[in-house]
Amino acid sequence: MITILDRFAPLAEKRSDVARATDLRARATELRSTVERVAWDGAWYRRAYFDDGTPLGSKENDACQIDSIAQSWSVFAGADRERSKIAMQSLRERLVRTDDKLMLLLWPPFDHTALEPGYIKGYVPGVRENGGQYTHAALWAVEAFARMGDGEVALELFDLLNPIHHATDQRAAEKYRVEPYVVAADVYSLPPHTGRGGWTWYTGSAAWMYRVGLESLLGFHLHGNSLRIEPCVPKSWPGFEITFRRGNTTYRIVVENPNHVQTGVRSVLLDGAVCTPSGIPLQVDGKIHEVSVTMG
Questions:
Q1: Residue 220: helix, strand or coil by DSSP?
Q2: First-to-last C-alpha distance (Å) of the chain
Q3: Which of the ends of the chain has fewer CB neighbours closer than 10 A, N or C?
């Protein structure tokens, strides 16, 4: 909700509705204050509350002590920066299983518990939302780390979710048991099905993986008739290239990272001329344009 209010406020201003924009921003500020007061659990943010006031996503719970979504969206919503860092570190420590190539939605799963969260408790523990990897949420975590400027962790987790890495040999493929060229909506986390892919060909997480890779990591942000390049990559990357076609026009984008940084753009050249990094102008003229970006 905080993110929605923040997004709609500028739109209201563009329509000269200053009163509405002011109200939206005030509501967002109030919500942030409330979240910090009642949702912080000590090392991460709680997910929700039951009707009787019992928290969900808290160390007090015997199931779902921590939930991935609340941590990632604390970053998106502009929560307390230090708390968000702690929350994302807790996510990494408690929900990421490097050996199994999994990033869980929540843990522990709902099983023998008095908590009644709804339909997800009907799934077998470790399957889908009930303690398995739910790829939508996992990709939001990658984006959150990128927004925090941590290109090392962002790429590490992106690679963890990449389906091709679940079928690098016959043994891995037999464990994964679904197509390695399609994003799976979920991956199971408990024996005897640990690492087995769930639904494929039927998930919006494929689009999220594309967006997170292109926008959050490579920093390709298209806004109408302008382009912003704002990468977040590992320090070891010397650079990368993107070929972008707009109508009959091609933009060859070469990004160099001579100082081995994770974020930051020092300069941008468009066809040899200095250009502002935040707004590279685009046109459709049938030509090939060269965009040179230097990180730093």
A1: strand
A2: 34
A3: N
